[in-house]
Design brief:
By secondary structure, this protein is mainly beta. It has four helices and 25 strands.
C-alpha cells in the first residue's frame, strides 16, 4: 500500500531498494566510483561541462508483526548521477548513474545490509544530422520488443523516405535472484543479446515498426531439478504501431511473437506463439470529453518463454490473461475534472475480476493547489482454498481515496489517504482484518536552486504489519562544473 500512496507525493517519494531496483547485488564497484571522481576532476581540464545530481534518502520505521516481534529498520540510500558533455568533441558525452544502500539498524532485505549497482554508464556520440547517435557501455534499450539493460553498443539513425533504424548488441545485465538457484545456468544461457528495429514514420499518419530480439545463444537444460526442462533463451519478433490519422484520434500498441524453439505446452494450454497483444485507443469527442479503450491479451506460455529475472516470473506458467477497459475523462470546468473507468480482467481458469469507479480532480492553478478523491468497487473471483476450515473466499473489495497537494513559494506539501475494505474477512491473507488503511504526509523545501529537502511521514494499518509508522528524509543536490566559456 505504501507504493500506492507515493503516486502523488512527487516531492518526497519513498524509493524502495531491492528487486524493484534490479535486485540486491554487490555494492557499486570500486571502478565505478573511480569513474565518477575522474569525470569531475578532469571536467575543467577538458573544457567539458559536468552536471552531477545527488539524492540521499534515509528512512526509518518500526514494524510490529504478529508472532514475530518488533524490528527497527533504518536504510540509507544514495543515488548519484554524472553527465559530462563536450569531451573533446561537441557531440561526445558521458553519462553515469548508480546507487548504493546500507542498513543502519536491522537488515531490511534478504542478502545483507549493503546493496547497490551501476544502473548505467556509457559514452554517447551525437553526429549532428539524421538523428544519428551511438552509445557504448552499460545502457538501457527500448527498441520495440527490446527492453533490456545491456553492456555493449547501440546505434540509431534516420534514413530517407521516413525510415529509421536502430540496433544493439552486447551482454545482458543479469542480477542474481535472492534464492541463488540455477545462477550458473542462467548466466550461461544469457551469454549474448542483440536486436534491432526498423520503422517508417509519416508526420500526418504516425509510425509503424518491426523489431527483433535474441537473448542468449546456448540453452542449458541441466538445472539440477529432475524432470525439469527450462530454456531461458529468448527470440522475440514484435510489430508496433502508433497512428494519429486525425488530430482527435490516437491508436498505439504492439503484438509480440515468441519465435523460439520450445517444447509443447501442457494439455489444454495454448501452444500459440503469439505472446502478447497490447493496444490503446484514445478519441477526443470534444474539447472537454475524451474516451479511451484498452485491450491486453497475454499467453503466458509464450510471454514468459524467457526472462532475465527468473526469480520474479514462473517460467512454467501456461495460463491466459485478458483485460479490456474503458475510461471517460470530462473537463466539467476549467478547475474540475471527472474521470470514470471500467476494467474487466480474465485470468484464465482462475476467474474474472471487474473494477469500476470514478475520480474527481480539482485544481486551483493560481494558488498552486490540487486535490482529488475517488471510489472504486472491485468484484473479484472466488478462490478455492486448500484449508478445510475456509473452503472458499472472495477477493472483492472497495477502495476509497483522497489526496491534496499544495505549493507556496519554495515550500510544498501533500496529504494522501487510502482505505480498502474487503467483503470477505475469511480471506486467510487478511488475518481477520478486513479493513486496511494508510495515511502519508509530505513536506518539501527548495532551499536553493540546486538543493531541495523533503520528508515523509506515513501510518499504515494492515493485516500483515498492523500498525506501522515510517519516516523518510530526502536531500537532492545538483551542481556542475564548466570549462572556459561554459555556462
Amino acid at each position: 500500500m505504501q507504493e500506492v500512496l507515493n503516486a502523488h507525493a512527487n516531492h518526497g517519494s519513498v524509493f524502495r531498494t531491492g528487486a524493484a531496483n534490479g535486485g540486491w547485488g554487490p555494492i557499486m564497484s570500486y571502478r565505478a566510483h573511480l569513474a565518477l571522481v575522474a569525470t569531475l576532476i578532469t571536467g575543467t581540464a577538458w573544457g567539458q561541462e559536468v552536471t552531477a545530481t545527488s539524492t540521499t534518502i534515509a528512512r526509518t520505521w518500526r514494524q510490529d508483526t504478529p508472532g514475530m516481534g518488533q524490528s527497527t529498520y533504518t536504510p540509507a540510500t544514495e543515488y548519484l548521477g554524472v553527465d559530462a558533455t563536450r569531451l573533446g568533441l561537441d557531440g561526445l558525452s558521458m553519462h553515469l548513474y548508480g546507487w548504493g544502500a546500507s542498513d543502519l539498524a536491522d537488515a531490511s532485505a534478504i542478502g545483507g545490509k549493503q546493496a547497490g549497482n551501476l544502473t548505467y554508464g556509457y559514452l554517447q556520440y551525437d553526429f549532428g544530422r539524421a538523428n544519428a547517435q551511438v552509445k557504448a557501455g552499460r545502457f538501457t534499450v527500448n527498441q520495440g520488443v527490446g527492453n533490456e539493460q545491456v553492456d555493449g553498443i547501440t546505434a540509431r539513425t534516420d534514413l530517407r523516405f521516413g525510415f529509421l533504424v536502430s540496433g544493439f548488441a552486447g551482454k545482458p545485465v543479469i542480477f542474481k535472484n535472492l534464492s541463488n538457484n540455477h545462477q550458473d545456468d542462467n548466466a550461461y544461457e544469457h551469454d549474448f543479446t542483440y536486436g534491432g528495429r526498423l520503422a517508417w514514420r509519416e508526420a500526418k499518419v504516425g509510425e509503424l515498426g518491426v523489431s527483433y530480439l535474441q537473448d542468449g545463444s546456448q540453452p542449458a537444460y541441466d538445472l539440477g531439478l529432475p524432470g525439469t526442462v527450462v530454456d531461458y533463451t529468448r527470440r522475440e519478433l514484435g510489430l508496433d504501431v502508433h497512428l494519429t490519422p486525425i488530430s482527435r484520434l490516437d491508436v498505439a500498441g504492439r503484438t509480440v511473437f515468441d519465435v523460439n524453439d520450445r517444447p509443447q505446452a501442457a494439455p489444454g494450454a495454448d501452444n500459440s506463439h503469439v505472446a502478447e497483444h497490447n493496444y490503446k485507443v484514445t478519441g477526443k469527442l470534444s474539447d472537454q470529453v475524451a474516451l479511451t479503450g484498452t485491450f491486453v491479451e497475454r499467453n503466458f506460455f509464450a510471454y514468459f518463454a524467457g526472462t532475465t529475472l527468473p526469480s520474479l516470473f514462473n517460467q512454467n506458467e501456461q495460463g491466459m490473461f485478458r483485460a479490456s477497459g474503458a475510461s471517460l475523462t470530462w473537463a466539467a470546468t476549467s478547475k474540475l475534472q471527472v474521470l470514470g473507468d471500467l476494467r474487466r480482467t480474465d485470468r484464465g481458469n482462475q476467474g474474472d475480476t471487474t473494477r469500476i469507479g470514478a475520480d474527481l480532480r480539482y485544481a486551483l492553478a493560481e494558488r498552486h493547489i490540487q486535490a482529488g478523491g475517488g471510489y472504486h468497487q472491485v468484484n473479484g473471483f472466488t478462490v478455492a482454498s486448500v484449508d478445510t476450515a475456509v473452503p472458499t473466499y472472495s477477493l472483492s473489495h472497495r477502495e476509497f481515496r483522497a489526496w491534496i497537494m499544495a505549493e507556496r513559494g519554495a515550500a510544498s506539501a501533500s496529504l494522501d489517504t487510502i482505505l480498502l475494505h474487503y467483503d470477505d474477512a475469511n480471506n486467510p491473507s487478511l488475518n481477520h482484518h478486513a479493513t486496511q488503511s494508510a495515511v502519508m504526509g509530505s513536506v518539501g523545501y527548495q532551499a536553493r536552486a540546486e538543493v531541495k529537502v523533503s520528508g515523509d511521514l506515513s501510518y499504515e494499518d494492515t493485516p500483515l504489519y498492523q500498525r506501522q509508522v515510517a519516516a523518510l528524509l530526502r536531500v537532492e543536490c545538483r551542481f556542475g562544473l564548466a570549462g572556459k566559456g561554459g555556462k
